[in-house]
């Protein structure tokens, strides 16, 4: 997978060596971010470009195996308990500790990390890593209590994939240590083998799980076909509809989480 899967394979191998159509109830839209710098204006035909943007406190970086390297992106959901985030399923693996920092920019203090406690997945992903089900909802917490939604000042609703020509804003974090988010505004292109797509250069490794936003609603995340895309200027999303809503509903109801796979297919 172009966006995060290769790192997960390496990280898991390293750990083994070292050690031996509607939103669900409560998933409501929140007020727009107060971020002062907007992503570039959408373009209908030409490929847009992702540029550095001010952090949105409701979008953050996902760290795997420690508090230094961030490998994916996630988004805070608006829920009753305020403790859920949304990301790509291929960003999380069983046996690899993970945490989330909303509004990450350059660095974070230990108290800003939210531990990922449980993961909720579509059965198709658990059984066969079906790219159509490359989405995950995760419950997070930290030692001093509180909710990630309160810390972020709000969260997003989940909505169905929009039609071709709909403007979406994508914000994500490139794979690495430190850094700031990049943002891109683009228009939904045609389906590729059933996957929604956008044309935007600069959504590089690490942007898996980045929310595709229409207002305050997440209508897609970078992932799905080829783990989000093998070409640098095209990104894909798993289709959003009743399936992702069911996963979010199970998570909000507090049902037992799922065991994520530990091996990933490399499509690129």
Furnish the topology, listing elements before pairings:
Layout: H1 5-18, E1 48-49, E2 51-52, E3 59-64, E4 69-76, E5 84-87, E6 98-102, E7 114-121, H2 123-128, E8 136-141, H3 148-152, E9 157-158, E10 167-172, E11 176-177, E12 182-187, E13 189-192, E14 195-201, E15 211-214, E16 217-221, E17 234-236, H4 242-252
Oligomer: single chain
Task: Describe the largest sheet.
Answer: 6 strands, mixed
Give the distance, in angstroms, between the N- and C-terminal Cα atoms. Answer: 6 Å
Tally the beta strands. Answer: 17
How many domain units?
Answer: 1
CATH classification, class level: Mainly Beta
User: Residue share in helices?
Assistant: 10-25%
CATH fold annotation: Thrombin, subunit H
Any idea what the CATH architecture is? Beta Barrel
* Strand numbers in spatial order across the main sheet: 2-12-10-15-16-9
Principal-axis shape equals: globular
Question: Structural class, judged by helices and strands?
Answer: alpha+beta
Describe the structure.
- With 268 residues, the protein is of the alpha+beta class.
- The chain has one domain (5-22, 37-252): Thrombin, subunit H (Beta Barrel), CATH 2.40.10.
- The chain is built from 4 helices and 17 strands.
- The protein has helices spanning 5-18, 123-128, 148-152, 242-252, and strands spanning 48-49, 51-52, 59-64, 69-76, 84-87, 98-102, 114-121, 136-141, 157-158, 167-172, 176-177, 182-187, 189-192, 195-201, 211-214, 217-221, 234-236.
- It has a 6-stranded mixed beta sheet with strand order 2-12-10-15-16-9, with no helix packed on it. A 6-stranded antiparallel β-barrel has the order 3-4-5-8-7-6. Strands 1, 13, 14 and 17 form a 4-stranded mixed beta sheet that branches.
- A hairpin with a 2-residue loop joins strand 13 (189-192) and strand 14 (195-201).
- The longest helix is centred in the N-terminal third of the chain and has 14 residues, at 5-18.
- 50% of the residues are buried.
């Amino acid at each position: 997978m172009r966006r995060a899967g290769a790192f997960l394979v390496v990280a898991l191998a390293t750990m083994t060596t070292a050690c031996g159509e509607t939103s669900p109830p409560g998933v409501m839209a929140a007020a727009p971010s107060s971020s002062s710098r907007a992503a570039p204006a959408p373009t209908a035909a030409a490929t847009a470009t992702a540029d550095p943007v001010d952090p949105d406190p409701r979008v953050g970086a996902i760290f795997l195996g420690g508090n230094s390297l961030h490998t994916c992106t996630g988004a805070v959901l608006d829920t009753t308990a305020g403790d859920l985030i949304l990301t790509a399923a291929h960003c999380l693996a069983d046996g690899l500790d993970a945490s989330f920092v909303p509004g990450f920019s350059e660095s974070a203090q230990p108290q800003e990390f939210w531990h990922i406690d449980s993961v909720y997945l579509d059965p198709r992903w658990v059984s066969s890593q079906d790219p159509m089900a490359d989405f995950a909802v995760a419950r997070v917490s930290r030692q001093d209590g509180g909710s990630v939604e309160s810390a972020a000042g709000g969260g997003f609703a989940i909505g169905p994939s929009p039609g071709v020509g709909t403007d979406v804003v994508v914000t994500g974090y490139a794979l690495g240590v430190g850094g700031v988010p990049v943002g891109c505004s683009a228009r939904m292109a045609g389906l590729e083998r059933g996957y929604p797509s956008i044309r935007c250069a600069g959504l590089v490794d690490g942007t898996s799980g980045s929310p595709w936003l229409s207002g305050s609603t997440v209508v897609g995340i970078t992932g799905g076909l080829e783990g989000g895309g093998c070409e640098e200027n095209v990104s894909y999303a798993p289709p959003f509809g009743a399936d992702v809503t069911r996963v979010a509903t199970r998570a909000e109801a507090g049902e037992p989480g799922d065991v994520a796979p530990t091996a990933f297919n490399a499509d690129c």
